[in-house]
Design a protein that fits this description.
The structure is a single chain. This protein has helices at 3-11, 56-74, 92-108, 158-166, 174-185, 191-196, 211-222, 246-254, 270-280; strands at residues 27-32, 35-45, 77-87, 112-120, 124-134, 149-153, 203-207, 225-229, 260-265, 284-291, 295-299, 305-306. By secondary structure, it is of the alpha+beta class. It folds into two domains: 3-134, 2-Layer Sandwich (60s Ribosomal Protein L30, Chain: A), CATH 3.30.1330; 141-299, PurM-like C-terminal domain (Phosphoribosyl-aminoimidazole Synthetase, Chain A, domain 2), CATH 3.90.650. Helix 2 packs parallel to helix 3 (92-108) and helix 4 (158-166) crosses helix 5. The termini are close together. The relative contact order is 0.16. The chain binds adenosine-5'-diphosphate and magnesium ion. Residues 7, 11, 22-25, 42, 70, 208 line the site of adenosine-5'-diphosphate.
Amino acid sequence: MSEFDLIRRYFTRAAPGAVLGVGDDAALLRIGNGMELAVSTDMLVCGTHFLPDADPFLLGHKTLAVNLSDMAAMGAQPRWALLSLAMPEADEAWLRKFSDGFFALAEQHGVELIGGDTTRGPLNLCVTIMGEVPQGAALRRDGAQAGDEVWVSGMLGDAALALAHLQGQVALAADEFAACAAALHRPTPRVALGLALRGVAHSAIDISDGLLADLGHILECSKLGAEIRFDALPVSSALRPHLARPIGRHCALAGGDDYELCFTAPVERRDAVEDISRRMSLPLTCIGSIVAESGCAVRVADGSVINMGESGYDHFR
Ligand code: ADP
Ligand code: MG
């Protein structure tokens, strides 16, 4: 059973008291004054998401970053967080660095830590985040329309490439590895981009499980398909030489942990998107378009379609 079948079968119920329940990057709740509260939770588990010897400062950063990324994907302004920790022991040196990493990023985004839970157990880090968005303005997975262009922010696949290097599947030069390792350990949540895309994008998601898997969620929720141009994918100079090999294609199309945004916008808003890109000095790349026919075709220059065996990270497949 896949992770998403599991969620659908056992944990998806009607939530008539919510504007939006299970199935998007955050739930939406009406809170008055014309605003909605966006709420989401994300857990990092030792051995699954990071190794026991991971740098605690970077882990503090990433624990919050992955949650901020879900606020970005909703176009929500992050405001408050809860932090739940299970730890085998209270290691003060570790806690100092972890909390420094966490609060450095929280302060950058004006996020207040307002509670949580602490217990002894296998190392497990869980944040619940809350943000605000004007009523009806959230960027949802179900808003894509046929004819929309598909865009991604930043570069794809560097985090997965760093992991491939660590696993001996590719050999990167030292400076290339350093750049990719930064993408893996210190992702930049695209909060300002999410806010700027309100009123511009029709739909959005953050890329945590790989482009195809996450774009697939937009397509499924919007009941549409997409045509993606492989040669348009934004990749770093470290990844580009590997694109001819399956491991390189896998990193670009299905690599996890990018925390970039994938969004769709009508062709008429292309200038607005390009303007946001210039203002933020953040590459935004059009990689294809939304089509009425379901499925996602990734085409290379000669018109042939790439068949990806595996389309992203799934915890239970
Ligand atoms: P993301 O990658 O954006 O954090 P996930 O892929 O983890 O989202 O989850 C997909 C959707 O399923 C989200 O709306 C999430 O809130 C919901 N979800 C995940 N696990 C559970 C659960 N155990 N119970 C209820 N909802 C869940
Ligand atoms: Mg998400």
